[in-house]
Amino acid sequence: MKWTLPNILTVLRLLAAPGVAVMFLYFTRPWADWFALVLFLGAAITDWFDGYLARSWQQESRFGAMLDPIADKAMVVIALLVIVGYSSMSPWLVLPATFIVFREVFVSGLREFLGADAKRLQVTKLAKWKTTAQMVAIAVLFSRDIFLHHMIDRSIGMDDATLSGILDGAIADEVGLLWLAQARDAAGYVGLALLWVAAALTLITGWDYFRKALPFLKEPA
Predict the structure, then answer these.
(1) What's in the keyword line of the UniProt record (predicted)?
(2) Looking at the 3D structure of the chain, how many domains does it have?
């Protein structure tokens, strides 16, 4: 295997996947959320660059073709586990995350079973849009938690009545809680909407892969 720049970027993206979860073991929030978001965004950007550079520089390789989808799936699945784990387990978040994880496991198992025939299941443009929607949704959901925990830090020592009064506009907002609450809510709604879009695309592309794989799953006559 040649250590080309595209392959190095792919390996770094794979290593960044568990790093997103590790951030929450060694840093307090919201810093853990900030570091996880930066790490996730950096990895997402390399997802575009490694493929673009490999094609432009004619450095496409079997190693990169094998590792690239693994790195993508690891990034998405681990980030979703972290977000769901630190959430209130809302079904509006858990359900699309479950659909996404199920599809990724299903398609990975399908490709492993097909072996050499799996190369006939080409990645479609819709599947690429699915990956983009997943990564954007996850980034927005990380930002929601950043706004939330900055709110928590700024409201330390406040009683419930004071906090409610600031958010209702009855008390002067001297520490900037109101815009953080608005940003948190906006990021939450947008992130959830994008995650449901990603889940829908995930199920559609998963069905498409299964339909294309059916001829290879039939018993020999």
Answers:
(1) Lipid biosynthesis, Lipid metabolism, Membrane, Phospholipid biosynthesis, Phospholipid metabolism, Transferase, Transmembrane, Transmembrane helix
(2) 2
pTM score > 0.85 for this model? no
Structure token pair of residue 200 = 């829908």
Q: Are residues 135 and 195 in the same domain?
A: yes
216 and 149 in a common domain: yes
pLDDT tens profile 68-96 = 788 888 889 999 999 988 887 788 899 99
Q: Are residues 80 and 156 in the same domain?
A: no
The per-residue pLDDT for range 97-140, each reduced to its tens digit, is 999 999 888 888 887 777 766 666 666 778 888 888 998 999 99
Helix axes 91-114, 62-85, angle to 10 degrees: 160
Asked if residue 205 and residue 155 are part of one domain, the reply reads yes
Q: Does residue 206 have a pLDDT over 90?
A: no
Report the phi/psi class of residue 58: left, alpha or beta, with left for phi > 0 and alpha for psi in -120 to 50. Answer: left
What is the rounded average pLDDT for all residues in the chain? 83
Domain range for 177 is: 112-220
